Structure formats: structure tokens, C-alpha cells
């Protein structure tokens, strides 16, 4: 196959569902002209599709079969033109013309230079650099939408260690006699349960980002808000914590972000910002579980309390099938010029699930594999190889 990106003509607004274009692309890979893509031809197609401007992403044979399985609707071992046309219209549409949203987590005074930051002041040193990186991202990457989250805790929030004496009735463990021994960073088990019926465990913090205070409504003055951006408040219920941009910790109430993303037909969620705990990991998790092609921008994230929060979030994101990227890579990903197979797999699985919902006859199941082998997108990192190596 050619070393140039043959899909570059169909990126962004150039994407088209014109049958003539779809047929011409199909013919380019149907080398034996039998009106279907056999395993080798389909592998060549994926190799050309998943690439950056100069490099291809290498897929294992099992990963190629995972992709083919969800596309081969008649299970004949090949991808015919009708199947390819559906693939183009419903999967490549998201790969070549993604709709992006940047979610900037909690760039608030209290996290960056206030009471939460005071827990570990040594971590505050890199906050200004992270703010500059986020500003550069929002100004240069041409995101379709930008959201900024804000912790919006009431004064009597359950996560504040100063409130423990008044909240003994909602704490299951430890018993009231031990509460005075607790310190910032310790955890308590609450009487309240999550959506699965499990007791909620709460980490303790000093009061920070209190609603209507300087620390909550005021985003850091160095943060430049993107035009047309929207704010998302989280943590508004005093009896349950909320770290994720999507849900509270018990999955009891959402923040409204899901509806905003659906309304705008967002396909790709980019995550950056600040965390005093699990905000990065839980936001990545919820984005993935809601079917978004999720990208964690590692050098646009900053931990304000525990230096290990970011490294744990990175490992977690990869295990969830999300992409971990650098800011220098984001612009091409937003444009559709850097196309990651991890994100492509999310698109094809969403397509299969939509077909399943539409027809009781279609029941997608993974190809046969060793029962202990996880689905490849969740456990295997896709490697990038240069054209000179292929």
C-alpha cells in the first residue's frame, strides 16, 4: 500500500457518504476484485486507517479479528461492499470526522493555591505550567466544545473533616468514639449506599471549593476561558462526594454533562485539569463507560495533593481502553489526522451495540479466545511503526 495517508482527503469537513467515494475506497483495498475484503485486505485497510501523519499503528492478528468480527455482519469471514458501506457511514464517520469536547477539571483557586493545595505545597510548583498548557490546548487544538468543571461543595459537605462531629449519624465506620482520631486523608465508611447497594467510602479533606466562596466560583486568574465554553458544577449534594465530571461517587445523580455532550453529538472526550484525588480516574472511567472515545492528556494534568494520582490515572486509562496522549499530539487527533486504534475500537463496538439494539437477530460476541484473555483493546497497547519500517 502507499506510504501516504489515503484517508487524508476525507478528514473533517471533507468526509462524505457519497457512494461513489465509498466504492472507490473499497476498490483500492479489494485487490482481487471479488467485491469483498478478505483477511489480508481488511488488515491492509486497518493499517492505512489507523495512523498519524507519518506513522502507522501496528495491530496484532487478534486485534484485527476483533475489528473484523463486529463488521462482518453475515459471518462469512470477509467484509463485503454492503458491510463496508455501513462501516464507512457509521464508524469511519466518527474516526475521520470526530466531534470533540475538552473537559478541564477543577482549575479552581482552592485546588491550585488554596486550602487543598496547602496539603502538599510542593506540588503547587508546576500548576502555572499546567495552566499555560491548558490555555495553549484550548486556543490551538480547535475543539468543537470546551467544558470547565468546578467543585461546588456546600459548607456541610461529607468530605470535610471539620464536619465529622456533626455527621456521626451518617457514618457507619469508625464508631463515634474514634472520629476524633481521624486525620486528613483518612477514609470513613458512610451509611449511604451507591447504586449497586455498596456502602460509600469517603476520603477526608479540609474544607475547599465551598460554594459561593472565593475558592469555588473563582477559576484561577491565569486560566483563559475558551469562547462559548460551559461550566459544570459537581459535589453539590452534601451527603455524597463527586469527583467525576459526570457523576457523584455513588452514581446516584449526574452533573448534567452527559446531556450536554449528547446534545452536541460529541464522540471524543479529551480530559485535562487538576485533581485532589480521583477526579482524573473517575472522569476517564465514566467517559469510557458512556461510550465516548476518551483521551487523557497527560502533560495537561496536575495533581494537587498526591503525586501518585496522575500515574494511577494513566495506568487506569490505558486499562479502560482510553488513549493517553501528549498535548503535541492532540491537534492532529482532533482533526482526524492522527487516528488511534483504541478509539476506533470504541467506535466499532458502539456500532455493533447500536445494531444489536435495532435487531434482535444480531447478537455480537467476541471471537473465540482463551477464557482468561481480556478483550484486546483493554490490555494491549497499540504500537506505532514508521513507514520506513513497513
List keywords for this structure.
390 residues; alpha/beta; 6-stranded parallel β-sheet; 3-stranded antiparallel β-sheet; 12 helices; 13 strands; elongated; disordered C terminus
Summed up:
The protein has 390 residues and is α/β, with parallel strands linked by helices.
SSE blueprint and pairings:
Elements: H1 19-29, E1 36-37, H2 39-49, E2 55-58, H3 61-71, E3 79-80, H4 81-96, E4 100-105, H5 109-112, H6 127-140, E5 145-151, E6 171-173, E7 187-193, E8 199-203, E9 230-234, H7 257-263, E10 268-275, H8 279-289, E11 293-303, H9 308-319, E12 323-325, H10 327-335, H11 341-358, H12 376-379, E13 383-386
Parallel strand pairs: 4-5, 4-10, 5-9, 10-11, 11-12
Antiparallel strand pairs: 1-3, 2-13, 6-7, 7-8
Helix pairs in contact: 1-4, 2-3, 4-11, 8-9
Give the DSSP E fraction (strand runs of 2 or more residues).
15-25%
Anisotropy-based shape: elongated
CA-CA gap between termini: 10 Å
Q: What is the helix tally?
A: 12
Any low-confidence stretches, pLDDT <50, length ≥5? 366-390
Number of strands: 13
**Measured on Cα atoms, how large is the radius of gyration?**
23 Å
The pLDDT mean sits at 87
Biggest sheet, spatial arrangement of strands: 9-5-4-10-11-12
**Major sheet summary line:** 6 strands, parallel
**Could you estimate the helical fraction of the residues in percent?**
25-40%
Please identify the structural class as seen in this structure: alpha/beta
SSE pattern: HEHEHEHEHHEEEEEHEHEHEHHHE
